[in-house]
Design brief:
- The complex is a heterodimer.
- Helices cover about 40% and strands about 15% of the residues of chain A.
- Chain A contains eleven helices and nine strands.
- In chain A, strand 1 and strand 2 form a beta hairpin.
- Chain A is globular, with a radius of gyration of 20 Å.
- Chain B has one domain.
- Chain B is about 75% helix and about 0% strand.
- Classes of the chains: A alpha+beta, B mainly alpha.
- At the A-B interface, helix 6, helix 10 and helix 11 of A face helix 2, helix 3, helix 4 and helix 5 of B.
Chain lengths: ~325, ~120
């Protein structure tokens, strides 16, 4: 299989005038729904490292096409946001399938390594501020070039999530309560913008020098952008470092200082809190969606089966936030 | 039960031991990640067999007291909240939702940070 993939990559890169032998092709641990491959192209006197990101063809209802992710990366890169350079894009009908090839960026994505390894100790000191800056830059993207992206108001998104939850016919008293609570919240009066949709450790590349790149745009959409700030504060993305509200590495004040240093719209902590509950509910529904791909027989995957039992993580986080003084 | 030893939990324990001792170091990194998931799944099944009924019954008992109906289940509670037929500020309701969430996570992932924080 690797040999076959290698020859597909080779042909695709030839069409971009990159001619060389594909070497060291290896799968990386990706998300649950994408294949990620790392490889090198052997050129005359050196070799260059690349990443292939490839959709499975079965996207969740919230996800966009992999080739559309490439278009977003190209657009935000022009703005100076930190994203890997796109080399080549393949549509679903091409031999390589719905995928793209980008330059490899040195650094780490694995959350536990970034949070625990001493080599990132200095980098994470300023990471919350850097993330705030980067999120604000993404939100300044001109969305005119991204007309293919789904556009949703907060209420539409909330109702979509709720309806998706009900489709699975798995009653959750906590989610019912959460939905009613969320309908009464103020999510900030800000203009619609490009939302990354999954900005957190795992989807950013961090080196010893700090934030290097923002990847994994499959949940991107246009809407109230402040949800990116609440999302990274969800306990699901703190990887056990519960005390560090921002991604398990930083404080909310630093994230907001970074954001507010770039954004005209100034965000306060209370608004982020509403988005934090929203994000936790959203992650719970995404877990349901992922598990349903296994349950309905579309795919037999122990990962997807297991994620069904992570819904309860979001429920305990929500009751902690709503009733028990959790942050 | 008419079945011989080992019982289901003991069988799962043997499989988990095998994966941990014999397989873990043999698999490439991208499969090591999946192997951890497999181990987690086996542990969920094991905990559910051992504790599931007790933890479930605890919640159902409180739920039936709260809504005063002795056949009520989780679906009934969800529906009553949805239709706002319960006072959402009622402390007993909040406590029930907390207990439900704690009991579920103690089967699914007792090492989850929020749960550990709350039981400390």
């Amino acid at each position: 299989m690797n040999q076959e993939l290698g020859s597909l990559l080779s042909k695709k890169l030839e069409s971009e005038s990159i001619n060389g032998e594909i070497i060291n092709l290896e799968p990386l641990t990706g998300g649950a729904s994408k294949e990620i491959w790392k490889f090198e192209v052997k050129l005359k006197d050196k070799s260059e490292k690349y990443i292939l990101r490839r959709g499975s063809g079965i996207e969740g209802p919230l996800a966009i096409k992999t080739s559309d992710e490439a278009q977003i990366q190209k657009t935000v890169r022009k703005l100076g946001a930190l994203v890997p350079e796109i080399i080549s894009v393949s549509s679903l009908s091409e031999p390589l399938g719905d995928s793209y090839i980008m330059k490899f960026v040195e650094g780490e994505t694995i959350a536990r390594k970034i949070l625990r390894d001493s080599e990132y100790k200095n980098a994470i000191q300023n990471l919350a501020f850097e993330c705030g800056e980067s999120i604000a830059k993404i939100h300044q993207t001109d969305t005119a070039e991204l007309s293919f992206l789904p556009k949703k108001t907060v209420n539409e998104q909330l109702n979509d999530l709720y309806e998706t939850y009900t489709v699975f016919n798995q009653a959750s008293p906590v989610f019912e309560y959460t939905y009613l609570w969320l309908k009464k919240q103020n999510f900030g009066e800000i203009d619609d913008a490009l939302v990354h949709g999954d900005f957190r450790l795992g989807n950013i590349i961090v080196s010893q020098d700090g934030l290097q790149s923002i990847i994994d745009w499959e949940l991107a959409h246009v809407g109230n952008p402040l949800q990116d700030l609440g999302w990274i504060c969800g306990n699901s993305w703190r990887f056990g470092n519960t005390d560090k509200v921002v991604g398990g590495f930083g404080d909310l004040k630093d994230l907001l200082d970074g954001y507010n240093s770039i954004s005209e719209y100034q965000v306060d902590q209370e608004t982020v809190r509403a988005w934090q509950v929203f994000g936790t509910f959203r992650w719970g529904v995404i877990c349901l969606i992922q598990a349903s791909a296994h349950l309905n027989g579309a795919i037999n995957s122990v990962e997807k089966a297991a994620i069904g039992r992570r819904v309860s993580e979001t429920e305990i986080d929500i009751v902690d936030l709503l009733f028990l003084g959790g942050r | 039960m008419i079945f011989d030893k080992p019982d289901s939990v003991e069988l799962l324990d043997a499989v988990n031991h095998f994966l941990n001792e014999k397989i873990k170091d043999e698999v490439p990194p991208h499969l090591a990640f999946k192997l951890r998931i497999v181990e987690n799944v086996l542990n969920i099944v094991s905990r559910e067999i051992t504790l599931g009924e007790k933890l479930s019954n605890e919640v159902i008992k409180d739920l039936r007291e709260l809504i005063e109906k002795d056949t009520a289940n989780i679906k009934d509670l969800a529906l009553l909240i949805k239709e706002e037929k319960l006072d959402l500020q009622n402390e007993d309701l909040k406590n029930l939702l907390v207990k439900l969430s704690k009991n579920k996570i103690s089967i699914d992932n007792p090492n989850y940070s929020t749960f550990k924080k709350l039981i400390d």
